[in-house]
Design a protein that fits this description.
Blueprint: H1 3-9, H2 14-33, H3 40-51, E1 57-58, H4 59-66, H5 70-82, E2 86-90, E3 98-102, H6 104-125, H7 130-152
Antiparallel strand pairs: 1-3, 2-3
Length: 157
């Protein structure tokens, strides 16, 4: 049996397809923004800050948005603060919390990285007819929500 035929008959399974798509997209993006001194995770944080509350986001909010652990986010934020992409400030009402804000350099780097991300998304989605792209993204969002909901449900027994 030819390899092509064998591949065609292999059942499509969600986890390996999502992993392959995410890994390939993430690695491509990593290479394309490397000259900015930015990682994909740092870009995501810049994007959340850019799109979020003008007063900044709390570290806990960023941790939740990134679906990561607090220690990892704290480490990433420290590196980004050292690179003057963002700053951390005491929260105005919660003494335990800190607000994270974009700095001017963070805005500039985000703007350049955003253009790279947009072009990569356009390039990637070009495999689909334009009439199917919005629906695909909506379906993918629904799948992501279902995965999140499943992760948040307690295991039986």
């Amino acid at each position: 049996m030819s390899e092509k035929r064998q591949k065609k008959e292999t059942p499509r399974r969600l986890p390996p397809l999502l992993r392959r798509a995410w890994y390939s997209l993430n690695q491509t993006f990593r290479h394309r923004i490397a000259h900015l001194g930015l990682t994909p995770d740092q870009y995501s944080i810049l994007r959340w800050l850019h799109e979020g509350d003008a007063r900044g986001l709390t570290q806990q909010t960023i941790t939740d948005l990134m679906a990561s652990d607090p220690n990892t986010i704290t480490s990433i934020l420290r590196r980004m603060e050292k690179a003057v992409l963002l700053s951390r400030h005491p929260h105005e009402t919660d003494r335990r919390a800190r607000r994270v804000r974009l700095e001017a350099k963070g805005h500039r780097v985000f703007t350049e990285a955003f253009e790279i991300a947009r072009k990569l998304q356009d390039e990637t989605l070009a495999v689909l007819p334009e009439s199917r792209r919005a629906r695909f993204l909506g379906d993918l969002d629904a799948v992501a929500e279902a995965c999140s909901a499943a992760a948040n449900r307690k295991r039986p027994g």
